[in-house]
User: Fold this.
Amino acid sequence: MALEAAGLSEASSARPARRPAGTALLTVLSLAGLVALWAVAASLADSRVLASPAAVLAAGWADTVTGELPFNLAMTLGRVAGAFVIAMVAGTAIGLAMGLRPRLNRFFDPWLILILNVPALVVIVLAYIWFGLNEAAAIGAIAVNKIPNVVVTMREGARALDPQLAEMARVYRFSALDRLRHLILPQLQPYLAAAARSGLSLIWKIALVVELLGRSNGVGFQIHLYFQLFDVAAILAYTLAFVAVMLLIEFLLVQPLEARATRWRRRPA
Amino acid sequence: MSNPSKPAPPAGAGAPPEPSGALSVRIDEKLFRAADGGLVRAIENLAFEAPKHGFTVLIGPSGCGKTTTLRIILGLDADYRGEVRLPEREGRVAVVFQEPRLLPWRDVEANVRLALPHELRSADLDALFATLGLETMRSRFPGELSLGLARRAALARAFATEPSLLLLDEPFVSLDEMTASRLRALLVSVWSARPTTALMVTHNLREAVELADRIVFLTARPGRLRGVVDLDRPRAARDAVWREATLRAIDEAYPGIL
Assistant:
C-alpha cells in the first residue's frame, strides 16, 4: 500500500512538470514577439497616438509610484470579484433548475433570450437610474450582464448529467451533500470552468463601462480621464496592468484548479 | 363481517406481514410507452419469491423484462401494478448494474466508501479488496481499469454495504469466458463469506446452473412466469458431470433457453 502510494505520487508529480517546461518557453517567445512587433510599429509611426512600449511602461510606473494605479486596479478587481461570484452562484442555480425541469425551462426560456439580448449599456444605465449611482447598482449591473451566459452554459451542463450515475447514487442512498460534491459538481466541472473563463473576461470589460458611466474610481474611470487628455500611453498602461492581473488569475488560480479537478482524465490506462 | 369478540387484525389480509428475509415480487402489469406513442406490455402476472439468504437467478430471453423487474425492485421504476416486498423494510439494497457505474472522478476506494452509510465510512475493507483481488487498484481511477476490474470494483462496492438484498444485472456480460468464470468464482467466494438474499439476472443458463439455489424462468415479452427450478446441491459439489446433467434436464423441461 505504501509502495503503491509512493509510486502514484511520483507519477503524478512527474507529469505536470513535463508540460510547463516546453509550453512556458513558447508562451514567453510569443509574448516577446508581440512586444517587438508593437515596438517596431510605434517607432515607424512615431506618433503620440501610438505610444511605444517604453512610453507605456513609463506612464504605468509614474502612476504606480503615486499609488493611483494600484488603487484603481484594486477597485476594479473588487467589483469584478463581487460581480463574478454573484453571477456564477445565481447563474448556476438558475441554469440547473432550468436544465433539470423542462416545464420551468419552457416558461423562462423567452425571458432568458430577452435578457441575453438586452445590451450591456442599457442594463447599466437603467441600474444607475433605478438604484442610484452607488456600488450596489454598479456590481449588480455587471452581474446581470453575465448571469444569462452562465445560465445557458449551466443549463447544458444540467442536461448532460448522467442519469445512470444518479440511479446508482439513489440506490446507495447518497446524502444530499455527497450527491452535490461527488456526483453533480464533478460532472458540471467542465461547464463551470467554461462559464468562469468566459465570465472573467466579459465581466471586466463590462466593469470598465460601469466605472466610466457612474463611478469616480477604477480602471474604467482612469481610462475615461486619460481619454479626455488623449494620453494613449496611460490608457494602454492601465489596460495592460489589468490584463496582467487577469493572466495571473488564470495561471495561478483557474488552471491549477482545473488541473486538479480533471486529474482523473489525464492518466492513461 | 367483523366479530367484536375477536380482536381484529390491524388492517385485514392486505396488511404487510413482518419481513421474512425473503424477497417477494408480484408484478401484475408493467406497461411501456413506445416511441410511436402506443403502449407495450412488458411484464404480466409475474410473481416469484427469492428465499432468504439464497441465490436466485432470473432467466429469460432478451426483452422479457428482466432488467425492468430489477429496476422495479430497486425502486427506480414506480410506474407498475403490483407489489414488491423487500427482505428487510429499512435494510440496505445493493446493486451491480450491467455497466459498472463507477464515478470516473473518484478512485476505486472512494467509489466503494461513498456507497457506505456514514457510520461505516471508515470500515476496514482490506479483506474485501483482497478477496476480489483489488488490493493494488484501490487508488486507481475507473478509467484506468479494464471492464473486468471495473466490474470487480462494482462488486466490492455492493458487498461493502453489507446489504440485506443484493441485485445483479448480468454482471458478467461482454467479458471473455475466462474472465467471466474467474469473476463468477469471486462472486461465489465473497457472497459465501456473508450470504445475503441475492437476485441475479442473466440469459446464460450455464451461469445459472453454476450459481443458483433457485432459477426463475420468464417467457418472452410480455414477461410471465414460466417456471421455477430449485437446485439443492451445494455449490462446491456441482462438478462438470452434474452441471451437464442438470443443464440437459432443464433444457428438456424449458426448451429454447440453452
Notes: The interface with chain B takes residues 1, 4-5, 8, 164-165, 167-168, 170-175, 178, 182-183, 186, 189, 261, 264-265, 267-269 of chain A (CB under 8 Å).
